[in-house]
Amino acid sequence: MESNLNKVALITGGSRGIGASIVRRLAEDGITVAFTYANSSNSSEELVNEIQNSGGRAYAIQANAENVNTTKEAVGKTIEKFGRINILINNAGIFESKMYDEFTMEEFDRMVAVNVRSVFEGVQAAAPHMSEGDRIITIGSVNANVTGFPGLSLYAMSKAAVAGMTRGLARDLASKGITVNNIQPGPVDTDMNPVDGSNAKLLKEFIALGRYGKATEIADLVAFLSSEQSGYITGASIDINGGFMI
Ligand SMILES: NC(=O)c1ccc[n+]([C@@H]2O[C@H](COP(=O)([O-])OP(=O)(O)OC[C@H]3O[C@@H](n4cnc5c(N)ncnc54)[C@H](OP(=O)(O)O)[C@@H]3O)[C@@H](O)[C@H]2O)c1
């Protein structure tokens, strides 16, 4: 594997929350970072400036994953800009909670499009440009395996889907020496799941450590799985959840 200084990563959904922490962490490691966002153009621009001012290389790409081919195009733009792609982090995701009979089929399709289809699209576009030692990492969720209360049918389905997809892709890409892994966070304090939100008190009771995770803690695990040291880990879904409902 080459030095970080020659590596290029694309992080989907890098404008806020866990994705922005991953962008910062990989940039700190000397990796060139491209990232996508759907709407947050101002915070994306600020993040690019922050990284460039610290001597790193960064590039923000508007790419709404609800639309077919936008994630594929983002991979193309990353390669056009930086000449290569070594690490793909599938982080962009949406969360919606409702009883099963309240969801519309449009909402079903949107959940699948952003949380599942765009992941597959990104891998299909990036993997042909990747080689031995390169990495694909998806941000799944504890809800792939555990749902503590009603309303999570579609979100849980989408995160179980990426766990299964990870196992399949790990087999498909093993011959190229590319590892494929899935990180399953518990509650992490972001706009999606604020530590002072309406569900927070209940969620904290499910967590052995009694606190929410920090986006930087997820980014640290991403950095390890992106590194040379993680070379014997593939097809894994790794929990990082403070002991959620153990
Ligand atoms: N927070 C948690 O407790 C938690 C727990 C387990 C798993 N996760 C997973 O971790 C990932 C990141 O979550 P987060 O908490 O950081 O969420 P967040 O704070 O809501 O941030 C979501 C990020 O994804 C981007 N995004 C959303 N919809 C998009 C779309 N259609 N196309 C492209 N980008 C889109 C957003 O871009 P804009 O800023 O432009 O909207 C933003 O950068 C998700 O996959 C989520 O399911 C989160």
Automatic annotation (TrEMBL):
UniProt-listed GO biological process terms: bile acid metabolic process
Keyword Transferase: no
Keyword annotations of the record: Oxidoreductase
GO molecular function: oxidoreductase activity
Domain Ketoreductase, chain residue ranges per copy: 7-186
PROSITE patterns assigned to the protein according to its UniProt record, in alphabetical order: ADH_SHORT (PS00061)
SMART domains assigned to the protein according to its UniProt record, in alphabetical order: PKS_KR (SM00822)
Residues spanning the signal sequence: none
Keyword Oxidoreductase annotated: yes
Complexes and interactors: Homotetramer.
Family assignment from sequence similarity: Belongs to the short-chain dehydrogenases/reductases (SDR) family.
Record-given protein name: 3-oxoacyl-[acyl-carrier protein] reductase
Species of provenance: Cytobacillus firmus (Bacillus firmus)
